[in-house]
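pipeline/complex-builder :: batch 7 item 3
reading input block
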Amino acid sequence: MKAVILAAGEGTRLRPLTVSRPKVMLRVGDKPIMQYAIDALREVGVRDIVVVVGYQKERIQTHFADGKDFGVNLEYVVQRKQLGTGHALLCAKDHLDGDFLAVPGDNILDGAMVAQLLDHRSDVTMLCTESAQPRKYGVVELDGNRVTSIIEKPPRRISNLISTGIYHFSHRFLDLLEREVGAGRFELTHALQAAMAEGYAIRGELTTGLWLDVVFPWDLLSLNARVLAGGPSRQAGTLESGVTVQGPVSIGEGSVLRSGTYIKGPVSIGRGCDIGPNVVIYPTTSIGHNVTLSPFTEVRNSVIMDNVAIGGHSYVSHSIIDEGTTIQSHFVTCAEPKLLLIENELIQIDKIGSIVGESCEIGHRVVVDAGRTIGAYCRIEAGNRIIKDIPDSARVV
Amino acid sequence: MCGIVGYTGNRQALGLLIEGLKRLEYRGYDSAGVAVLGDEGGGLRIQKAKGMIAELERRLEPASGTTGIAHTRWATHGRPSDENAHPFTDCGGKMALIHNGIIENFQELRERLLAGGHKFTSETDTETLVHLIESHYKGDLVVAVRKALREVRGSYAIAVVHTDHPGTVVGAVSENPLVVGVSPEGEVVMASDVTPLLPFTNDFTFLEDGDVVELRAGSFRMTNLSGRKVTRPSHHIDWSLEDAQKGGFEHFMLKEIHEQPHAILQSLMGRITDEGLVALAPKDVDKVKIVACGTSYHAGLIGKYIIESIAGVDTTVEMASEYRYSNLARESALVIAITQSGETIDTISAVREAKRRGTRTLAITNVVGSTITREANDVIYTRAGPEIGVAATKTFTTQVVALYLLAFALGLRRRTVGAEDLRRLREELRRLPAKVQTVLNSHEAIREAAHRLKDCQDVYFIGRNINYPVALEGALKLKEISYIHAEGYPAGELKHGPIALLDGRTPVVAVVVDDPVRPKMISNIGEVSARDAPVYAVGYEDDVELAKVVDALIPIPRTDALFSPVVAVVALQLLAYYTALLRGCHIDKPRNLAKSVTVE
């Protein structure tokens, strides 16, 4: 059986982390989000996968290529304009010849969930889960295992059950989908509602597996913590004498950890990094490839993406530093509890630091207040204190 | 250039041979052919066609047999045509032969064979070979091949089959690549390059000059021209078949451009620390001579600036094809040879000449086990992964990265660079993958700029100092794939001639970064604008002054001027790519060009 992974969207709510990559390529734990979907499909023996790409597709194609390094065969189709999930799925139509699976590329999921779906096939089978924030998803009502209604992002609370976006479809569903999309109803939920009206048997399966979604940039930290916990320890690279490593810590090839460095897992470090001497990394931290952390720097509960350099005597806590950013010495993120206003909703976060977008250049002695975001491609000169959000490409003198 | 595939095993050979040829397509060719040897005296079936492999496939008729040879030809003697395509047969029609390279004494051999009654059907040097082997054949094919080749002057890689020897393919090389592998099922495959062998195995044996190999199902045997047994080491190469597929990209070239951040990271891996650097640098170097061709030559030109400024070593750069014509009896410089494939015949000859002149040689190449790695004393691999697009991209940037590492290593040994400076430079080098990624992220802007070039007849590229070779490379990329006439010039040379050619329809692309020559570049741009020529600049994104004096700015991120060539060239690669795309050109297989130039 073939599967379709939907990976065309940008994830605008995740800016600035998505200015140059689609949401599916955000790194959680030690791999991009979409890789969780690919691993899950391969685990249950689904190897022929059609990936619907669009926004910044080159980033996906360079990483996954033909899929052989990941044990699958990938084909790509391009959704030129991101109109909706139904339209995206329809883009893969010519590559599908029988029943098929549809899987979101931007959620974390596991093989057991896909297996559960395969065990309960119907005209349409969807995997549902309980959510604390159902209003952001397609909300589902069930009668036993029969889906009685599905409503996209309802304004008021109907049920806590949402669609995970993981589906099994019979092939004939595609004709119905084509008709709906042709009539300008671009969301998959539109087609599902139409299918329901036409008497398709739509089955809902409740999963208790680990299904996670990143909605806002800050979610990345909690997701990273959940994924890294229980992760494996795999150590390549060079550890100089006097390095302490405790708990689950994985270190990639070609990385050098210099004397006096202290690491407490769960921590994941990519390939070709240069860390130390005397750097401290606390749980739960994920560090990408080719990252430099200079002496006397402390990093805790943070995500540091590829090609980042952080100068000495810095303190990075509960923060996300996007790829290619260079930070000079004595950089401080003031991590504190904070009430944040996100899309007109006040959200209390226990402890947050800051988000720094990609390819920023930050001078010596820069201090960022809790909960602040610095956009992509910014230049912050030495000695500044950042007390409000900084837009992309800004220069702070 | 020409490509050879040979197969013997338990499956039908025809389809496998055609598949193999397709994997060699990128080498460039103008005709293709195949010979299948029928099992149990089933005769020889030869089919060939001028044009693409697809053309051969269209005309292909079934041929039964589990042994065969196939060829793509890039014309040197005799124009591309059905008749001149390989394989060629002997007078008796029992033997078929394919050949890469050039036989220098073919005229005298041909006359002798004509006098001996042999009948020729073409004007090629290759046909001489098959008749020569026929004249020596007394029942043992390998012996006949050896005897014939002892009479030959020139370069060759050949593959031969004979109806009296079912299940056998004989190959031989001199100054041309040929590699052999055995699949777990015992199929034996031979080709000009590892890519056709990838579906069968990851362990390869490269033939060396004067080797003759006999393939039979299950194994192969190697001897030299005098019949003595030889053994060659087996190399394990970790490329997968799929590394050589397009993975959703429209062209290999675009895929390879986008792979550059990763490729650069791979070439830095483990080499940027003190310990890593020391391993790279040969001792006692006080003079360097770089030899290379084409794009690799441009990498060498950048290398001159890098090595001189970091390591303070006097460096010259020569075209590999011209190196041997100097009358130097002794060479005192370390000779650095740069070749992507490791098979570029001119570069290999230059290394041989350098060794003859008694000096050490160091090769910078992308292909493990290639000929140059056996010829040179030391090797630095660029680790870029397979490059299929004929226009070199990621192999160029990783060659330059290898030269930075080498210069750092030399500087460290010679103490020409302070610890603090070296630390800063290394950090900046580490940032290159991110900066290249930033250029890739702005590909839409570059595509816009390409619209301005697509209808031009001529384009000039200018740069100074370390970015002068970038102008050369930008021009080379544009002419290679878009067929627009393009020239690169040192900006200071414009006034000494080319400025006469400028007018409102001839744009100039300038590479301008923040270094001491920037004011001079700005005034050169002024001279160009005064002749109404549109000026497009590749420059730092925040260079407001530059943006004011040019018609369009292609922005690149700020970096130390020493590293700016790698960042700037990526913008020019994309510019060439999109221009060619807008003009509807065959980007991965430009006309008349070959990926690996194995003839002189």
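note: The two ends of chain A are 57 Å apart (CA to CA).
queue -> next item
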